[in-house]
Structure formats: C-alpha cells, structure tokens
Amino acid sequence: MPPRTCALCNDARAILKRPKTGQQICKDCFFWVFETEVHNTIVEAGLFKPGDRVAIGASGGKDSTVLAHVMKTLNDRYDYGLELFLLSIDEGITGYRDDSLETVKRNQQQYDMPLKILSYDEIFGWTMDAIVSQVGKKNNCTFCGVFRRQALDRGAASLHVDHIVTGHNADDIAETVLMNIMRGDIARLGRCTMICTQGEDTIKRSKPFKYAYEKEIVMYAYFKKLDYFSTECIYSPDAYRGHARAFLKDLEAARPSAIIDIIHSGEAFEVREEVKATQKSQQTCKRCGYMSSNDLCKACTLLEGLERGMAQAAITDRARKRLDAEGPAPDNLRTIPFFQNSTTPGTSTPVALETPS
Amino acid sequence: MGSQSIPTVSVKVEFGGGLELLFANQRTHRVALLARLPSPASGTAGPSNDGQSDVAVAAAAAGRPADVAYLIHWLRDNLLTERPELFVEGETVRPGILVLVNDTDWELEGEGDYVLKEGDEIVFISTLHGG
Ligand SMILES: [Zn+2]
Ligand SMILES: [Zn+2]
To answer: What is the mean pLDDT of the segment spanning A169-198?
Structure first.
C-alpha cells in the first residue's frame, strides 16, 4: 500500500485516521488540529478570563496528563494569562494511587506547575484501603466518588483557584449520557453534557476535552511521548459503567461518529423545569460547611456511618433510619474540617505546595 | 540459514496503556513468526525472501502471508498470560485498543490485513484504563 498523504497539508505522510472526520493526517497537522480544537472549545464556551487561577485535576492518567500538557501549550500560545496548578487527590490506595502520584510529581517538573496533593486520610481520616476493609468492594465507589468531589473542591479552595478543569473526554461524556438514560436520571442527563458547571457556592468546573476523542488523546500522548500512568483502580468494579463503555466502543467501531452523535443527542434533550426542580436547593452542611442539599452533606453522612461502624447508612434509606434510631452522633465523632470557599487570593493562609523533588 | 530453514518474519511488539499487564507486565517483546501461515494444503516450505515469482507460486500452496490478524492470534495463544477477553474480541483486538504499525495508525495500513515485514514495529495501546 503506498504511503498516504496528509489531507490537511497535502505534503507529509499521514499517520492517523481521525475518528471524528475520517481524515488521514500527518503528525504535525494532528498536533495542530487537536490543540486548535481544544482552543476553539475553550474560546467558544468562554471558559477563562485573563488572570484566572486554574487547577488541573491531575490523576497521572492519560487524560489529565494530556490536559496539563495542552493547557500549558495553549496558555503560552494564545496568552490566556492563566495561572495553572496541578491538583491531585490521594485516595490512599496502595499500589495504585501511590504509583500514579509519582507520575504527577514528574509532571510537576515537566510542566513547571505548582502541585498540591490532598489525601482522603488528611481530610476524612480514612484511606480507601481502610474504607474497603470495612465496607468491602461493593459500594466503595460511592465513597470514593463523594469524597473525591469534596476533596477536589477543598484542594481548589486552599489553592484559591477560580476554576477546576478535568480531563473528561468525549467518550466519557457519551458514556455518562448513556448511563443517565439507562438509569432514567433525566435531571442529570440535562447537566452531564454541560461543558462548565457552577452552582452558587461551588467552584467552577469544566471539561475542555468535551469534544476530544479518547483515541486522539491516547495518540497525542503516544506521539508526544508523554509520561502517564495506566493501571485500573484495584477497587473499581463499576460493572454498569464498564458495560456502558464496552457498548460505546462497539458502537464507535461500527461508526466512529457515534460518540459525538450521542453527546449531541444529550445536548438536544430539553429537560422540563419540574424535572430539574427535583434537585433540592443547596444549603451548607451543618457539620462541615460544604454545600449540601440536606442538613448533612453526603461526605459527612458517609463518614458518620464509617465511624459508627454502620457504613451502609448513607447508601440506603433503611440503613439510615437504623442509624438514626441508634441516637444522635456522639460528641467525639470524627468530623471533616470546616469548609471555607475562599476564592479571593490573599484572604487566607498560604498553601503548602509539594516541593519538587 | 540453510535452504531447509522455514522462512520467518521477526517483528517488535510493544504494549502500552495497561495492556502490558496481560503480557507478564513486559512492554516490549521480539517475536518471530512463520512468514506464511501453516496451511493444511501445503506440506512444503515457504518461498525464499528474494524472488517475487517464487512468492507468487508458493502463495497458492502455503497459507496466506503472516499479517497483523495472525499476529494478534499468535500473541493471544503464545504470549498472553491472563484475561484474553481484554485483548481479543472475535477475530480482532477488543474495541478500544489502538494499533500502530511502524508508528502509523493501523486503520491507514489495512488493519488486520497488513502483511508483516522483517523488522516491523507493532504497538498495541489500551485506551480503556484510567483517566
Ligand atoms: Zn499534514
Ligand atoms: Zn458535611
């Protein structure tokens, strides 16, 4: 088969077939279109303004590693004027997170960005290893998801950043659309395709890779020889998501535009106001100050269950009633440090960053 | 090599993105395959490496030349140490695994039909692991 010429520059040899367009392009054109499309996504959604402090949620995996690289590249190329940080959460999973954090520490040097690592242990007093030893491997993803969300917000508040960007890509979003449909979670369906989410009280979060295909992210990392970590979480048998992912990959193999098509379908759903209103209004958690739709936030409820040896309490209503029947939480219960959402720089103590090793 | 030796094609295989875990946690492997697939119709040795006419004649007798599809099956049967369903699905790699032939997307090289040449580098990368 003769070498094929790049469809964009008509000069160099093509090395990649783009899943989105079917175009065959060369390496340099690939880097350029990939970066430019992310730039266009950022500009069209008006994600940033000059002077913003932006934390990149960094796991050491492919998506966040490529995101850090691309954010740095675009910030320099187009003069966004952003101050970029790496923010990592240490869930306390031996043999998994400790290795991926080593990758993040190398990224800190490679990209010359300040890094903040926050652990479940220091915020909640529990590592995932300890949680799994109590609750088993069935519901541990619930704990991890709730704790990670709050840990990222707390890390962002301590860095006084305005904004957290995460590496969620088009495949992830399409998968979430499918899962929300399959679960009948229409309120979430309306939100999951949004590129940027911000409640009154929450730190802005956005997904610059919303339209970036996983294939291209992995190819980008490969051709740029980026240093990333790729091991499945040892506790992650989220079977439902696994099926959704396998189904999506089968669809993509048959028709590569399926991923973008599903995102567009998700965007096109009009969610009725009554359905949106099933989300309760936000207040702050009476115990830890984090935003919550109940008196106690999810993290405090989960933590109380763990501390009182009734970890199921926050997962099912019946178990919660059993916990309540045991009486109020004891005074000496371990709680989460009070949350202060201080996004104004200079109003609180300086942050302890990781020292580059 | 004497004239009796069976022609082989040797290629470099690399695994990434977590796939190496299925292959004894080793990223790079050198493998030598029969240049032509053993075929029930052929009892004779394959063609020599030079001489196109020989190739054409022998092609009918021996099986098809070793291609990437054959390599995938060979890897599953000979190098894979666990969970074959994470590598192979049906006749090809599981969806979500990217394949590169000499640093080019295999979708530009005919995918499984690409015929292996001596010294080729074939890379398999899983996209399914972690974010
Ligand atoms: Zn080009
Ligand atoms: Zn709370």
So the answer is: 86
